């Protein structure tokens, strides 16, 4: 579809003629997944995957759907809460995949892969996410979170000193409970006690700060290709996973990056801290 200055005219898509019409912004009384709180991006992703077209502009203003109650993730699944979600979707060689792949290969990383997941991936339980990625276990599903040292000295404003940085990215398992106190103790010891312990207080950075520093939005954060060279802390438990291949965010909400642990350690050179 070619972008133009005028809004394209798209005819209504009838996925099920026996189901009453449902506007994209209307709640569904029949279990349809496209209700009041579904963002336009999710609707756009679903339609793009089905019809292989690119949409421009606020599509909810001019697309009218008839949605069956068992419509999920661009597929028709059985009406069962135990039904497995759709598998991962083909990865398009878009700007994010190309950029991050180039960074990894130029750094000598060879054992990695990207997988595109369905728009409602984060609504699934961990076991369903594991199935979608074909991960070895739910323990192999990890996330990157940006932390800010709220008690850093007034002259510590950036990440130029990785031993005493204003910000850190911590990679932990979804199944683990992050222990901020362990990171505080690690940083205190790393600086050989020269910085008072009270100067370390790690808290989750505001979302707008995380986006500004990394260039990635919530649920898309990865420690590869960040805008800022933020020092990375890897939970020690991840280094003990068998097999040694784990998953984390891939730069977009529905894009996941699988990584060989040994190559991650060599490329990222994170601090390894038992922090869960």
From TrEMBL:
> What InterPro entries is this protein classified in?
YbaK/aa-tRNA-synth-assoc-dom
Please list every transmembrane segment annotated in the UniProt record, as residue ranges. Answer: none
Q: Where is the YbaK/aminoacyl-tRNA synthetase-associated domain?
A: 149-261
In alphabetical order, the GO MF annotations are: aminoacyl-tRNA deacylase activity
Descriptive protein name = YbaK/aminoacyl-tRNA synthetase-associated domain superfamily
């Amino acid at each position: 579809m070619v972008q133009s200055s005028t809004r394209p005219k798209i005819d209504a898509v009838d996925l099920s003629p026996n189901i009453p019409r449902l506007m994209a912004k209307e709640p569904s009384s029949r279990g349809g997944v496209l209700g009041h709180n579904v963002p336009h991006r999710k609707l756009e992703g679903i339609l793009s995957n089905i019809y292989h077209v690119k949409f421009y502009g606020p599509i909810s203003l001019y697309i009218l759907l008839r949605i069956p109650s068992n419509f999920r993730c661009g597929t028709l699944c059985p009406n069962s809460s135990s039904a497995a979600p759709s598998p991962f979707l083909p990865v398009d060689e878009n700007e994010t995949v190309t950029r991050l792949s180039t960074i990894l290969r130029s750094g000598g990383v060879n054992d990695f892969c990207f997988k595109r997941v369905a728009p409602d991936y984060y609504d699934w339980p961990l076991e369903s996410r594991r199935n979608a990625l074909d991960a070895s276990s739910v323990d192999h599903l990890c996330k990157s979170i940006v932390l800010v040292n709220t008690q850093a000295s007034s002259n510590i404003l950036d990440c130029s000193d990785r031993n005493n940085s204003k910000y850190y990215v911590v990679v932990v398992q979804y199944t683990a409970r992050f222990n901020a106190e362990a990171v505080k103790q690690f940083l205190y010891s790393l600086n050989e006690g020269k910085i008072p312990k009270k100067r370390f207080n790690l808290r989750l950075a505001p979302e707008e700060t995380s986006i500004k520093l990394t260039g990635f939005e919530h649920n898309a954060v990865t420690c590869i290709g960040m805008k800022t060279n933020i020092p990375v802390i890897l939970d020690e438990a991840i280094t003990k996973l068998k097999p040694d291949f784990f998953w984390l965010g891939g730069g977009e909400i529905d894009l996941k990056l699988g990584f060989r642990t040994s190559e991650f350690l060599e490329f990222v050179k994170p601090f390894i801290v038992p922090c869960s």
